[in-house]
UniProtKB/TrEMBL annotation:
UniProt name for this protein: Oligosaccharyl transferase subunit ost3/OST6
Record field: transmembrane: 181-199, 211-229, 263-281, 293-314
Signal peptide: 1-19
Family assignment from sequence similarity: Belongs to the OST3/OST6 family.
Membrane-topology annotation of the record: Multi-pass membrane protein
Subcellular location: Endoplasmic reticulum membrane
Function statement: Subunit of the oligosaccharyl transferase (OST) complex that catalyzes the initial transfer of a defined glycan (Glc(3)Man(9)GlcNAc(2) in eukaryotes) from the lipid carrier dolichol-pyrophosphate to an asparagine residue within an Asn-X-Ser/Thr consensus motif in nascent polypeptide chains, the first step in protein N-glycosylation. N-glycosylation occurs cotranslationally and the complex associates with the Sec61 complex at the channel-forming translocon complex that mediates protein translocation across the endoplasmic reticulum (ER). All subunits are required for a maximal enzyme activity.
One GO BP annotation of this record: protein N-linked glycosylation via asparagine
Xref: Pfam families: OST3_OST6 (PF04756)
Stored InterPro entries: OligosaccharylTrfase_OST3/OST6 (IPR021149), Thioredoxin-like_sf (IPR036249)
Top-level division of the source organism's lineage: Eukaryota
GO cellular component labels: oligosaccharyltransferase complex
């Protein structure tokens, strides 16, 4: 019975010693975070400090960035993420000057080779969270953060990750970007000045009816011929036909080729510009006699051309329609067959 008080006193003394050591550790790293030569709130580690930081009986949580900033290692992602991690430590230090149980630390490969080798790390950067020893089951296992290798990970993403795995709420205080503000204001002033100086020279073109009519006409021809369809569906320019030749018209009503779009656009353009030329050229003839002769000549030409052209175009359109209706049919072979039939018909006639 006499040993029981001694045993109780020894246990109490041991607990106080462990708690004192843990408190001393916390205070040591808090002082390092406040007096850091780099970013305020970020502790620069070495092998010994890392062992103390992640040792047993710790009453604080630590976020460790394993990095390789030396130019010899060529770690671009390390250098890109470093300012975001410094911002993370600064933001936490602004609200919690005494760290309050959460530390943001960095272990560079140049001063922590033994730790890298002991943990089996061959890549960088690696971000790990070491929870407090009294955080519950699994607190002895660190939690790893998954970086996005194709983009710079923002500090806000890491802050959300730390908040999700700890009892601490990390808020990012990103400083105002005056460079963007000055660039934006300078761009507006430069654009306004340039517009003011260039306005006398650009005004005739900007208010030209012919220019805007041409732009509108070209846009209409492009979009009505299927230009946007090609961009959306990423269609090929031409494909190989069944006989080994080049097929420039796709089979099926839901398919289209790049060259097919250009053919349709040229047909539309010829018809459109012919109608425009006829409408604009005739009224500008000064002589009424010439105007009458031109109108009669154009009508005669159009009448003769329309009879022959209508027959050819109608047959061609029917053949194209038939070819697109049958997706397995080779369009160039159909067109050649139609051309040979037309020649035979002319000989018989």
């Amino acid at each position: 019975m006499r040993l029981l008080p001694l045993l109780t006193a020894f246990t109490s003394l041991l607990s106080l010693t462990v708690a004192q050591k843990s408190t001393n550790k916390h205070q040591t790293f808090a002082d390092l975070a406040s007096s850091s030569k780099g970013s305020k709130g970020v502790v620069l580690l070495n092998d010994q400090l890392f062992g103390d930081l992640t040792g047993p009986n710790r009453n604080f949580t630590s976020v460790v960035l394993f990095t390789a900033l030396d130019a010899r290692f060529g770690c671009v992602l390390c250098r890109d993420f470093q300012p975001e991690f410094d911002l993370l430590g600064n933001s936490w230090h602004q609200e919690h000057p005494k760290s309050d149980g959460l530390f943001f630390t960095i272990l560079d490969f140049s001063v922590g080779k033994q730790t890298f080798q002991r943990l089996g790390m061959s890549t960088a950067p690696i971000l790990m969270l070491f929870p407090s020893s009294n955080a519950g089951p699994g607190s002895d296992q660190p939690i790893k953060f998954d970086f996005n290798p194709s983009d710079i990970t923002p500090a806000e993403a890491v802050a959300r990750w730390v908040t999700a795995h700890t009892k601490h709420t990390v808020t990012i205080h990103r400083p105002f970007n005056y460079v963007k503000l000055f660039s934006f204001v300078g761009g507006i002033i430069g654009t306004a000045t340039l517009s003011k100086l260039a306005y006398p020279y650009l005004a005739p073109a900007l208010f030209s009816r012919n220019l805007w009519a041409a732009i509108s006409l070209v846009s209409v021809l492009l979009f009505t011929s299927g230009h946007m369809f090609n961009h959306i569906r990423k269609v090929p320019y031409v494909v190989q036909g069944r006989g080994g030749g080049v097929s420039y018209i796709a089979g099926g009503f839901s398919n289209q080729l790049g060259l097919e779009t250009q053919i349709i656009a040229v047909v539309y353009a010829v018809l459109a510009f012919s109608a425009i030329a006829l409408c604009l050229k005739m009224p500008r003839m000064e002589s009424s006699a010439k105007q009458k002769i031109a109108v009669m000549a154009w009508n005669l030409v159009l009448l003769c051309a329309n009879i022959g052209l209508a027959y050819i175009l109608v047959r061609w359109i029917k053949l194209v329609w038939r070819g697109k209706d049958d997706e397995t049919q080779d369009i160039p072979r159909v067109v050649k067959k139609a051309a040979s039939k037309g020649a035979k018909w002319r000989r018989l006639k």
